[in-house]
Design goal:
Helices cover 29% and strands 24% of the residues. It contains 12 helices and 14 strands. The chain has helices at residues 54-60, 76-82, 130-144, 180-187, 191-204, 220-230, 253-263, 277-280, 288-298, 301-306, 342-351, 364-369; strands at 9-13, 33-37, 66-71, 87-95, 100-109, 114-119, 122-127, 154-160, 165-171, 208-213, 235-240, 268-273, 308-314, 331-336. The termini are far apart.
Length: 385
């Protein structure tokens, strides 16, 4: 419905010239198709909310419209070169410092009622039937998909906008996936069995809460990068920065997850809350909403619908955490990441071609840094491997 105070605009789709691209364009009548609607509700390119872009809306209106999506990276420069006559929208970034030009979003019109929206890591087809939408996506991927190279996992950084919630993909390198020997060097000999058991629980459970406890530098994030690589075919990992933790209690947060679930129905979702001490501590006036949100997301009727597995990293002790979060059935795992004793730390340092300056315990960060850090001496409670 249009806004009574805003003028209507008429959008006219001009005929696309005939061409012979890699994916043939169907003939389009000379008579332009016209649609009237409020431009404020349309998008020039693919939207995170799954709203079709303006060119698609202008053609289909209220007619039957089907969408098909596939994730993956494609050779956009070659696709544009070979299908230039079908290109109707493009978004390009000129990186003067890098000396490169990057295509971020493009839209092809392969026929009167067949559109293809392509981004850095996605291909979305729109057509009058589901078979047509699937066909154009499969054909484009067949012609332009980049060959897969060795890589690690990835995660999706959740961005909190004023009017919507979106994600940005962060890819990890192949060396973030550790072999069993490397796991043993970094975390001790018992890590392999624990990692296997934990991975199996994430594969079997639809929702729940896991807590990684340990001082800064003890390897919590390092292990999470490894886990993302190991489970990259079955899980999607989402990261919520500490500064935007209040997104958990936003009204449109549930709608965001519902949209992600529709697109990626075959995946399990893991939400990572790093340094989330304040959000997990016993409820008080300043964190009540965050704790309640995590309780609802990790168990109960809302959890049945959203099916989110939540992993929180904390620096405090679990003794300070709200008891309701530790309830059996909600808690999938609680692991303490401790400092390495000297023998274990020396083995790791030797594998890195380094020597430790003195015989004491070390964090992973200290071993990798190649020198000891000046720490304030405090009593250590509850940190044992």
């Amino acid at each position: 419905m249009t806004n009574a105070h805003e003028p209507l605009q008429t959008v006219t789709t001009q005929p696309v010239p005939a061409a012979e691209p890699a994916i043939p364009c169907e003939a389009i009548p000379n008579r332009p198709a016209t649609a009237v609607f409020d431009m404020a509700w349309g998008n020039a390119f693919y939207s995170s909310s799954n709203t079709p872009p303006v060119p698609v809306l202008s053609v289909f209106g209220a007619d039957r419209l089907h969408q098909c999506r596939s994730d993956g990276s494609c050779d956009l420069p070659r696709a544009i070169k070979e299908n230039a006559d079908c290109l109707i929208r493009s978004h390009r970034n000129l990186h003067t410092n890098k000396g490169s030009n990057e295509w971020e979003d493009i839209i092809f019109r392969f026929g009167q009622r067949v559109f293809l929206c392509v981004g850095e890591n996605r291909v979305v087809g729109y057509a009058g039937t589901s078979l047509e939408a699937e066909k154009v996506v499969r054909e484009f991927i067949k012609n332009y998909a980049k060959p897969k190279s060795a890589s690690g996992g990835s995660f999706f950084l959740i961005n909190q906008g004023q009017h919507d919630i979106s994600t940005e993909t962060v890819s990890l390198s192949a060396d973030t996936i550790l072999g069993q020997e490397a796991l043993d060097l970094h975390y001790g000999g018992e890590i392999a069995k624990w990692h296997r058991d934990f991975s199996e629980k994430l594969l079997a459970r639809n929702y729940g809460l896991s807590i990684f406890e340990g001082r800064p530098g003890t390897g919590k994030t390092f292990y999470l990068r490894h886990l993302m690589g190991v489970l990259k075919e079955s899980h999607r990992f989402y990261f919520i920065p500490t500064s935007t933790m209040d997104i958990l209690s936003r009204q449109d947060f549930i709608g965001f997850w519902a949209g992600q679930r529709r697109i990626h129905a075959d995946r399990k979702f893991v939400v990572i809350l790093e340094d989330s001490d304040a959000a997990l501590m016993t409820r008080s006036a300043d964190n009540r909403e965050k704790v309640s949100a995590i309780l609802n997301l990790s168990d109960g009727m809302l959890a049945d619908f959203l099916r989110l597995q939540i992993i929180c990293t904390i620096n405090c002790s679990t003794a300070d955490i709200d008891p309701a979060l530790l309830r059996p059935g909600r808690l999938i795992c609680h692991r303490i990441f401790g400092r390495l004793d000297y023998i274990q730390a020396a083995r790791l340092a030797e594998s890195l071609g380094r020597k430790l300056p003195q015989a004491r315990d070390y964090s992973l960060a200290e071993v990798f840094a190649g020198h000891e850090t000046n720490e304030i001496s405090r009593p250590r409670m509850g940190f044992a491997v």
